[in-house]
Design goal:
The structure is a single chain. This protein has 3 domains: about 1-180, no CATH class; about 215-370 and about 430-465, no CATH class; about 380-415, no CATH class. Helices cover about 40% and strands about 15% of the residues. The protein contains 18 helices and 14 strands. The strands form 4 sheets. Strands 5-4-3-2-1-8-13 form a 7-stranded mixed sheet. It has a 3-stranded antiparallel sheet with strand order 7-6-14, with no helix packed on it. It has a two-stranded antiparallel ribbon with strand order 9-12. A hairpin with a 4-residue loop joins strand 3 and strand 4 (about 270-280). Helix 3 packs parallel to helix 9 and helix 5 crosses helix 7. It is globular, with a radius of gyration of 23 Å.
Length: about 475
């Protein structure tokens, strides 16, 4: 958890140290050494109380959206602005959790057409990552306060089923991860979460080559930009990609929306490090709270950013490589190398091994000429229409699929490359994952017959031949 939390002692709220003392932690002893000695329920409650410290107790924090000076870009952002304006006279005295809960139950539920908590978190999360800075902050605040109020564990004297099997460090991370990464990948066969807990403690990781974070983040951003701009395909549901980055052995992908992909990096014992990818806005959200190879959060973040790069490279290859069977090798059925769970799974792409971050840009440019090509990429945007005209049905469907609200007199345009299809086709036959990482051969049995890649191509041909337009 973030030990730098500062809480005013005049506010009547507990401080970080107050919470630790309440649950039996001693300041003189190393914090990590004490986790196993604290009761699981106490760790769970302490994690919740410390998460609460980060959020204001009155609704005045939402008032800043009234002075933002710009219009919201998403449906939830617009609904929040209208809700704040409607209740502006009550903001000074309203409880922030009550205010946020009312907004989610009244406005977000109406937009989503359901009161299911998982779907409400999904809708809020997508919109908060595609808003301007002010509305991002306000939507995140609303989502987290609503979760804290609706899922308050202090009302219960027992651990929830999902937390009972977690180790001490995972329980300590529980609320931090639940608020930052509230959605998880479900295995379609067992209907259980793919990950068995949180990958939170990496102190046994050895031989980690410390990356240059600036170069790492720029490369990840460019890969997401290319993926979103030139996308022609999808990721198979619950697709596994093997990696050799101990203790991480696999990436599991779930494409939940056109602009939202969840990836979980799985360790040898099945724990997961969640990564949320938002390609159209070149953003990603990876858990940065944990114990890294040297026992510090800084090194944990460095490991997490390497994982984010691996996910972005794999996503780019999934989405834009044209002849995936030959370029990326056929999907194979096999056990995940190094994983304790011996279940056989369909594995896509060759096995990737991190070999250090030095020279990433030059490797990427040598393979994909990314720096020069990026100058010709245009991100999605609103375009003003001539007076008296309206957006076409296709553009309205596109905007709705991407959860965009169309201002009056405007249409929404997807990202594209102005360099031309012939120029870009050269790079659709190249895998960037092969350039950035070592490739290890897979011994699994190649799938015979109609694989996912071939099935997707067949469906695309059928739709085009029957007069359908692509809208997502």
């Amino acid at each position: 958890m973030n030990t730098a939390v500062a809480v005013s002692q005049t506010s009547g709220r507990l401080s970080y140290d107050d919470v630790l003392r309440r649950y039996g932690f001693e300041r003189r002893r190393p914090f990590l050494d004490q986790l196993d000695g604290i009761a699981k329920l106490d760790l769970f409650h302490a994690s919740y109380e410390i998460a609460c410290l980060d959020f204001p107790t009155t609704a005045t924090a939402f008032a800043e959206v009234l002075n933002a000076g710009n219009e919201p870009a998403t449906q939830c952002g617009k609904a929040l602005l209208d809700f704040v304006r409607q209740h502006s006279d009550d903001l000074a005295t309203a409880d922030s959790e009550v205010f946020a809960t009312a907004f989610v139950r009244e406005c977000v539920a109406a937009l989503a057409g359901t009161t299911d908590p998982t779907h409400l978190r999904f809708v809020l999360l997508i919109d908060e990552m595609h808003e301007s800075d002010t509305f991002v902050h306000a939507l995140r605040l609303a989502r987290c306060l609503w979760q804290l109020r609706s899922e308050n564990p202090l009302r219960h004297a027992t651990l929830p089923a999902a937390a009972r099997k977690l180790d001490a460090t995972s329980l300590w991370a529980y609320w931090n991860r639940k608020l930052s990464h509230p959605l998880h990948i479900q295995d379609r066969v067992s209907n259980r979460p793919v990950a068995r807990g949180y990958a939170y403690d990496l102190r046994k990781m050895i031989g980690f080559d410390i990356p240059r974070l600036g170069e790492l983040r720029i490369t990840t951003r460019d890969l997401l930009h290319e993926a979103a701009t030139l996308r022609t395909a999808t990721v198979p549901d619950c697709a596994y990609v093997e990696i050799n980055f101990p203790p991480f052995v696999a990436l599991c992908f779930a494409e939940l929306a056109p602009n939202f992909v969840i990836v979980e990096a799985l360790t040898t014992d099945g724990k997961g490090l969640p990564v949320y990818l938002f390609p159209s806005s070149q953003q990603w959200q990876v858990a940065a709270t944990g114990f890294g190879p040297d026992g510090r959060m800084t090194s944990f973040d460095q490991v997490a950013q390497v994982i984010a790069l691996m996910t972005a490279a794999a996503l780019r290859d999934f989405w834009i490589v044209e002849d995936r069977e030959s370029t990326l090798t056929p999907p194979r059925i096999k056990r995940i190398s190094g994983m304790a769970n011996k279940t056989r799974r369909v594995v896509y792409l060759p096995r990737l091994r991190y070999r250090g971050s030095r020279g990433l840009r030059s490797k990427l440019d040598e393979t994909a000429n990314t720096t020069a090509r990026a100058a010709h990429w245009r991100s999605d945007h609103y375009r003003k229409l001539p007076a008296g005209t309206k957006p076409t049905a296709k553009q309205m469907a596109l905007a709705a699929a991407h959860r965009k609200t169309l201002p009056d007199g405007h249409t929404w345009v997807r990202g594209s490359s102005v360099a031309g299809e012939e120029v870009e086709r050269v790079y659709r036959s190249r895998s960037v994952a092969h350039a950035l990482f070592d490739i290890l051969p897979s011994k699994g049995k190649a799938i015979a017959g109609l694989s996912w890649f071939a099935f997707e191509a067949f469906c695309g041909d059928w739709l085009r031949n029957n007069g359908f337009d692509e809208v997502c």
